[in-house]
Every structure is written in C-alpha cells, then in structure tokens.
Design goal:
alpha+beta, Immunoglobulin-like, Neutral Protease, domain 2, 4 domains, six-stranded mixed β-sheet, five-stranded mixed β-sheet, 37% helix, 18% strand, globular
Length: 652
C-alpha cells in the first residue's frame, strides 16, 4: 500500500512514475496513479512550479533504470548520518540530513528506500514534510517521494532499518575470529545502500558525506571516510568524506578491531588474533600505491586502509573509498593472493574516481580496474606473474562465455549490458571484468603501451569525480586516442567488443611460459605418470589453479584419490585451490573430501567460491540433497548477496 503523512500527492506525479515503470515487468508501479493516491488522508495538491519544465528535463537526462530518484531535478549534494547501532535488535536507528541542489522548479524529491521504517521527515524550516512511500518492487524497493517547498535546501529523514536489511550483515560473537564480540558490516553495491539509508541510489549521483555513529564502547566503528585508529571511550565516532562518492560506496563496519600502519599512507584493520597475519600478507601495499601513482596519477583519497572482515563477507573485496573491505580468504600465508588488494586499490581511479553512470556501464569500472591491477602486479612482481594472471583470466572469461551462451544469455556476454527490469547483480560476471580488461589490452597492443598510458592518465584526470557512460567513453576514445583512424578501428574492433557477443577476432591470445610448464605435467599425469612423479616444486597458487582447471572433467575417482594422497589437496589452507579441488571431488563423489568441504561451505561466505560448488552439487539428486542440508546449516553465516544466489541454484 501507499503511505503519506497528512496530505495527498497530485496525480501529476505520474510523470515521474511512468518513467519508473520500465524498472520491472511487474505491474505494481503502473498503478501509481490517482486511485491509489486518493487512499491518503486529505486531498491537498502537491504541485510542481513548472510541470512542463519537469517533463522536458526527464527527456533530456540519461536516467538510471535501477533508481526511483530524480537527480535531474533535485540531487543530493551532501549527506549527514546520525545513527545508533543496536546489536540486540539488529537495526540502525537515527536520521540522515540530505543537503540538496535544486536544479529545476520541481518540488518533489524522489529517494530510493527498501525495508526502511520512515518515522518522519523534517524540512530545513523545521516543518514536517508530506511524503509518499510506494509499494515494494522486487529488487528495487520503494520510491520515497517528499514534498519540498520553494526554498527547501535540505530534508532530514528519521528512520530505522529492518533486521533483514540486505546490505547489513549482523554477526554473533561466535561467528568472529575472537568469539567475544558481535560484528556488523555493510555491502551497498549494487543497489543495497537503499536498505540502510534513504538516498539517490544510483552510481551516477555523487555527494560528500559526514556521519556520527554510536555503538558499544568496546567496539570501533569505521566508514568509507576519514577514520580514527583507536576505540573511543563512549563508542561515538565521527566521520568525514570530503570527496564526492556514489551511494554504492557508502560503507560501515563495527567490531573488535585493531590497526597497524603499513606505510606512508596505508594500514590494515583486523580482529586482534588476525592482525599479525594480515600485516605480513599486505607488506607490499605501499609499493602498490606508489606503482599505481607512477602509472596513472596521484592517489586522490589521502589514506588507503584495508579492513579484513569475517569470512561471511560475500566478495573478495569491496573498494569503499579510503577503506577497502577484504575477505580473510586472501590470507594465504604466502602473499599469493594479494592481487585482490591491487584490484581494490586500482578502483581508487577506475570506479571511485571515474564511475560508471549506470549499471549497464559496469564494465567501465571493472574492465579498467582489472587492466590497472594487471599493470600494478607486473610492476611489483614481474612479467611472469602478470602473464600467469592474464592466462588464467582468459580461461575464466571463456568459461563464462560458454556458460552464458549455453543458458541462452548471449546478450549478457556484451560489455554494454541490458539490465533494465533485472537485478544489477546479474552483471557481476567475468564479462565486465575480464572481457573489459582484454578490450583495453587490445587497444594497448594496437596503439602501443606508452601512448595508451598517456591516454589513461588523461582520462582519469579529466573525468575525476565524474560519471562516465559507454557512449561518452566511445566518444572520448575516438577524440583523444583513435582520432578516426580507420586502420586502428579495424585492428581493435571497439563496436564488436562493446556491443557484440563473446570475443571478437581481435582478442589477444595470452601466453605464459610458467603455465606451459604446468601443461607438461598435466599431459604426464593424463598419460599415466603417477602423481609423485610430477614436478611441482615452487608452484604458486596460479600454477595449481591452472593444473586443476586443465584436468577438469578428465579425472576418475582413483586419480582424484592419488592426487590427494600425494599433495594433500583436501587439507589445503588456500581457499582458491580448495574451491577448484572440491569441484573435482564432487564430480567423482570422492567421499574423503566431503567433511572438509562441509567445513569450507559453512565457514566461507565468499560467493565466488560458494556458487561453483553448489552448482556442481545440484547436478545429481544426492549432491543436491547434501548441498541443501549443508546450506541450511551455513545460511546464518552467509550475507544476503550470497544466500540469494545459493537459493536460486538450489531452487529454494
């Protein structure tokens, strides 16, 4: 149903609502018209000062199919949060003040909201605002429409989150490394910020923010902003983010954390029992920052810190400005998985600084970031390391293209996506990441690295703190690099990369001398050599992943047992290796691995690892039954991002 304060909204609001109907095939939003609006108490009109002007504006501005907001008329310039963390009720409660940029005479502010209990809204003159909260739409939540006066410059929304808010993961003490204190972290990407803050939840809208967060005195609160490094006595923390960011980069974590500086402008937060391991693993972080700056310009955010979260975090990392969130699954003890830190650091340029305008343009964040990550890792660890990463990346990309094609989702193999009416998480595949990276690598090969580096540095500088869409990038690429050169266009095939399926004929074919050595060992094993005859000394994670992937669908249960007896893969401490290894175990029903696999599935919440294992399990009735039982045990420790995906796989 619809909710308002004390007044009815004018049916002319349908101008806005009609645009939103393209969000979903559901008919619910089509009903935002006079009959439902009349369900409110009075019949007071809420009118625009210039209705025709608002219509013209809607036609001119690129809109975001995943947001109810109207930033073309009125946009958030600054946000101030004042929230209390309630671990007992599993809610955040307080207010958010939104300072506004009034661009037109339209007097309605539209915000994105989902599962929020709105208590009241005050205008900056102290009066209570009229507001309307639409029916809920799957994935997208509710449109919170607020009546503004002519001179309104800010509104303050008093609200409380739901205990089931999908952005927020509330952990009991036993779900943490220390086992003594509760823990909270947020995950706002892609459109989950609206589940903990009423906002204009579109990547194309940027704003500065400040916050006051109150929590238990024995915990520290951190945000994607300027952070303190020690706990306060009263549990109150103040934050400032002076650079404009998008809503998906709003982040909060609260827990028993300690900090250690790692370099000139970087450090790590972790639970006390994890801190030393994290400090050792991330020793190259300052070198990564310095290498990144040498490539594409000064780091714009001041401090770069990483907080290592509990294992329920659904992603490898999240590039929240000034405070990367990282999974503990990268703490491998040999620094072999720190490319993830390079990736999240690279987002400080590609994504946080120059941001995809909509989620259809997601490749502009991730493709650039994987390319940038590759360059950082090459600079620090050398060309052989980078070549292994690139070779593995192409393998993952081809696997994803094959899967999406098999599932009749060929359009999802385009770089520029068509996500209208869909959950933008559908675009979180290797297409955006790896196909995007290889498109940029193809440009580099065509124009030369030196010339391409000059172009990228200029691109980040000229578009800093702005949004970028695919069409604008095409125009920028032509104006500043390709300059209408038909030979370069034929060599690169940009249209085929961006709007075509799969891989164009211009795609590179990466090679790795290190991984060629692994291919020799694969052939030996498949031709009858025993596992103890294989030459695996000095193999890194990359070698082992290539080996296991090269054996996919080729092993029987005796070969799996032999590999396990020699290399003890079931007891590996490396989560990347375990994920690939367990897929072999599932395929041949290798029973000795199932106990460890259950421990893995119930202690790790990273979706990248969970999805392929559950997908392998559902291929047989016995596997699906076992996987469903394990999921019911594991579910309380999974973030909603992961549990939603797993339930879809299991058909729950």
């Amino acid at each position: 149903m619809f909710y308002c304060s004390d007044a009815i909204f004018d049916p002319k609001l349908s101008i806005r609502m009609n645009r939103i109907t393209r969000l979903t095939v559901s008919s619910s939003l089509i009903l935002l018209s006079l009959p439902l609006l009349n369900s409110c108490k009075n019949n007071t009109d809420l009118k625009s000062d210039s209705d025709q002007g608002s219509t013209d504006q809607l036609k001119e501005v690129t809109s975001d199919a995943h947001s109810f907001s109207n930033p073309q008329d009125v946009s958030i310039q600054h946000m101030h949060l004042d929230l209390a963390v309630d671990f007992e009720k599993r809610v955040l409660k307080g207010s958010v003040r939104l300072d506004l940029d009034r661009k037109t005479k339209v007097n309605v502010l539209h915000l994105d909201s989902r599962q929020l209990q709105i208590e009241k809204i005050l205008l900056d003159d102290g009066t209570e605002a009229q507001f309307l909260l639409s029916e809920d739409v799957e994935y997208f939540g509710q449109d919170l429409a607020i009546n503004l006066k002519k001179k309104t410059k800010s509104v303050t929304v008093f609200y409380e989150t739901s205990p089931s808010a999908e952005a927020l993961q509330w952990l009991k003490p036993e779900q943490t490394a220390g086992g003594k204190h509760p823990y909270l972290f947020s995950q706002s990407q892609a459109i989950l910020a609206r589940t903990w803050i009423p906002c204009q939840d579109s990547p194309g809208v940027k704003f500065t923010y400040s916050a006051s967060i109150k929590t238990l005195p024995d915990l520290i609160a951190l945000m994607s902003a300027e952070n303190g490094q020690k706990k306060t006595k009263d549990g109150v923390y103040a934050f400032t983010m002076n650079q404009p960011i998008s809503s998906y980069l709003l982040a909060l974590t609260v827990g028993d954390l300690e900090y250690e500086q790692l370099g000139r402008n970087c450090g790590v937060y972790a639970e006390p029992s994890m801190l030393k391991k994290c400090v050792w693993e991330f020793q190259d972080m300052q070198s990564m920052i310095d290498s990144a700056e040498a490539l594409y310009g000064k780091y714009a955010w001041g401090q770069y810190d990483v907080v290592v979260l509990p294992p329920s975090f659904p992603f490898g990392g999240m590039e929240n400005p000034r405070l990367t969130f990282a999974t503990p699954t990268i703490i491998a003890g040999d620094r072999s998985l720190v490319a993830l830190i390079a990736h999240e650091l690279a987002h400080s340029w590609s994504g946080n600084l120059v941001t995809n305008e909509t989620w259809d343009d997601f490749w502009l964040n991730e493709g650039f970031t994987v390319y940038f990550e590759q360059r950082i890792m090459e600079k620090i660890f050398g060309k052989p390391y980078e070549e292994m990463q690139t070779k593995l990346g192409m393998g993952e990309l081809k696997h994803t293209i094959e899967r999406l094609t098999r599932e009749n989702k060929v359009d999802d193999t385009h770089l520029y996506l068509a996500l209208t009416g869909r959950n933008p998480d559908d675009g979180l595949t290797d297409i955006a990441y790896e196909k995007g990276r290889f498109f940029l690598q193809t440009i580099e090969y065509a124009v030369g690295r030196e010339k391409f580096d000059v172009f990228l540095k200029q691109y980040f500088s000229e578009n800093a703190f702005k949004s970028m869409n695919t069409a604008k990038f095409e125009a920028y690429l032509d104006e500043h690099l390709l300059k209408g050169d038909s030979n370069l266009y034929a060599k690169i095939q940009p249209k085929e990369w961006i709007y075509g399926p799969g891989l164009p004929s211009s795609a590179p074919n990466p090679e790795s001398e290190e991984l060629k050595k692994v291919e020799v060992e694969i052939l030996k094993f498949m031709n009858g050599d025993h596992a103890d005859q294989l030459i695996t000394e000095n193999w890194t994670t990359h070698h082992w992943l290539y080996f296991l992937r090269g054996l996919k669908d080729k092993l029987d249960v005796n070969q799996v047992a032999e590999l396990d007896n020699v290399f003890d893969l079931t007891n590996s401490g490396n989560n990347e290796i375990l994920c690939d290894w367990f897929q072999h175990c599932i395929a041949v029903e290798y029973e000795p691995a199932y106990q460890n696999m259950e421990s893995f599935l119930t202690s790790v919440g990273r979706r990248k690892f969970l999805s392929p294992l559950y997908e392998a399990l559902v291929k047989t009735e016995e596997g699906k039954e076992w996987g469903t039982r394990v999921y019911e045990i594991a579910k309380p420790g999974y973030h909603a991002v992961s549990s939603n995906s797993i339930e879809e796989i299991l058909g729950l």
